[in-house]
Amino acid sequence: MQLAEQLKRRSPMEIGIMATIFLGLLAFIYTLIPDSTQPLETNFCPQYKPLVPNYNLSYYNSNYFYTSEYSNKSLTQFQGAIKIPTVSYDDLPMDVTKDPRFKVFKTLHEYFEKTFPLTSQYVEFVNEYGLLYTIQGSNPSLKPVVLMSHQDVVPVAESSLDLWDYPPFEAHFDGEYIHGRGSSDTKNSLLAILEATETLLEQDYSPERTLILSFGFDEEISGYRGAGELGKTIHDRYGDDGIEVIIDEGSGVAPIAGARVVALTVAEKGYVDINVSLDTTGGHSSLPPDHTNIGIISEFVTLLEQNPFPPELNEGNPVLPYFQCLAEHAPKLNEQIRRTVLEIEKGSHKKDFIEYVSGIPLVKYLIRTSQAADVIQGGSKVNALPERTTVSVNHRINIGSSVADIVERFEKFATDLARKYDFGVVSFGETLIEPTAKGVFTIGAPRTLETAPLSPTSGEIWEKVAGTSLHVFNPETNPFIDNDTPVFVAPAVFPANTDTRHYWSNTRAIYRFNPVFQEDMIEYHTVNERLRWRSHLTSTAWFYDFILNTTL
Ligand SMILES: *[C@@H]1O[C@H](CO)[C@@H](O)[C@H](O)[C@H]1NC(C)=O
Ligand SMILES: *[C@@H]1O[C@H](CO)[C@@H](O)[C@H](O)[C@H]1NC(C)=O
Ligand SMILES: *[C@@H]1O[C@H](CO)[C@@H](O)[C@H](O)[C@H]1NC(C)=O
Ligand SMILES: [Zn+2]
């Protein structure tokens, strides 16, 4: 509303009247007071020059990856990797020697040794199946670059098999798409990194800065066995902040509002599961209390849902810089939004912006903590009162909030209900209200992960990641992009976590980015996962150029 009024206030008609009455210099006034469609002079989102590797390799540059000769060779290699079903199952044990289902990763390793012989000279195995390649640089005072991916894929449900257009581990290529489990998540980046490295080594590449490739094998089940051990090994060798930059899977390059946006994920929301149990004395259901503990835990859930987390645009959340980049560089962004974003410093515009973001289903949780009561357990017999009822609530924590904020909220609601019903409250082993004869609430968090440290969005490393992207996704050099599409780089936030959660102490500069055209990644994690082949070739070119831009 406020926006509309403001635009009305600034209508050319009104300006014209003002001009005639007050100054009589219509033309002059028009140049002073912009109308709503003129761009504002802001510079929230500076872009950089495309960074072209200035290293003349003996026989080819990145355009080599777009030739049909290379494409054919790469396709065969990719298909071989998809055909090895490196599935992570939820019930795999922590000890990798205790389950034969891990052995399929050995098959993948043998395949890599055969397919990428030069790169394989540098491999070590961490916790049996983690792959760690170290190509030592000539200058040990430079911090290494780490490229990450994961070898595992999510399972294919037996019942979904006949919904697949092509069998998920057949790696069918239809001339445009490669089909199969892992084609988008993320054997594409796994292979692209290996192909880029192998190509460099074929050209007697010898870096000044150490290059490390680090591939876990259980990302889809939280990464403790793979990335957890790899991150520690790297930390043992190089120490706190001993790594220059890490690239891992993440956002891609998306067509938005008439532009192509290279989204580099610099932030991740946190994660916490909270369990609340209510223990009461049981008894026979012929003599029940007015409220059983199922009823009271239900009241607890109702309290949570009646008080959802409000949207909060906190300092450092990349959602605002992302929209500022769109406002400055995307030609087809809605004018009202453009103005709201560029004039955000004004209080009312911040409110408008939050309202706007909250109205977009896919985006609204990027500025608020989510809560979902996902599991409830209580009672075992219909003629006996339940003695214990437990609810488990999952949260993805907003940038600028913390696990402690969420725990505090649970303690408040539990305390309110405990006072009402005369129960005690014990939270994380600490007694907040002494347990009574009637019962006690117990709060605990089986899984917590704070929001990730923010990666830099300016400075030398950012410019290298951004500059490499602007070169590789440049319409003039990338044969897959229409010439008239502008390309720009913007920071982004992820609602989930990648394997990089195990690497936070290794560097502040973590970018979660898959150098693919996002519209080419289809249906990952579900049936008919596939990837348009041009995306894979572009990814390979990106890793090749990035390695050159950062290690020489
Ligand atoms: C790169 O090296 C090749 C072979 O040594 C040479 O023919 C070519 O002109 C060089 N290109 C540039 C841009 O320097
Ligand atoms: C690549 O494969 C396609 C399809 O099999 C074939 O038509 C084309 O000639 C191949 N290109 C090269 C350079 O081998
Ligand atoms: C939390 O609840 C879930 C089920 O809702 C259960 O699997 C888990 O063991 C509980 N954890 C703790 C620490 O109570
Ligand atoms: Zn993944």
Describe this entry's structure for a reader.
The structure is a single chain. By secondary structure, the protein is of the alpha/beta class. It has 3 domains: 3-26 and 50-268 and 452-551, 3-Layer(aba) Sandwich (Aminopeptidase); 270-309 and 369-449, Alpha-Beta Plaits, CATH 3.30.70; 319-361, no CATH class. Helix content is 33%, strand content 21%. It has 15 helices and 17 strands. It has helices at 2-9, 12-23, 26-32, 68-82, 104-115, 117-120, 187-202, 227-238, 293-306, 319-329, 335-342, 347-358, 403-421, 460-472, 533-551; strands at 123-126, 130-135, 145-150, 177-179, 211-216, 245-256, 259-268, 270-280, 370-378, 388-397, 424-427, 430-433, 439-449, 487-494, 510-517, 521-522, 530-532. The strands form 3 sheets. Strands 1, 2, 3, 5, 6, 7, 14 and 15 form an 8-stranded mixed β-sheet that branches. A 6-stranded mixed β-sheet has the order 9-10-8-13-11-12, with helices on one face. Strands 4-17-16 form a 3-stranded antiparallel β-sheet. A hairpin with a 7-residue loop joins strand 16 (521-522) and strand 17. The longest helix is centred in the last third of the chain and has 19 residues, at 403-421. It is globular and about 85 Å long. The two termini are 54 Å apart. The model is unreliable at 1-36 (pLDDT under 50). The structure holds 2-acetamido-2-deoxy-beta-D-glucopyranose (3 copies) and zinc ion. Zinc ion (ZN) is lined by residues 150, 185-186, 219, 249. InterPro entries: ArgE/DapE_CS (IPR001261), Bact_exopeptidase_dim_dom (IPR036264), Pept_M20_carboxypep (IPR017141), Pept_M20A (IPR047177), Peptidase_M20 (IPR002933), Peptidase_M20_dimer (IPR011650).
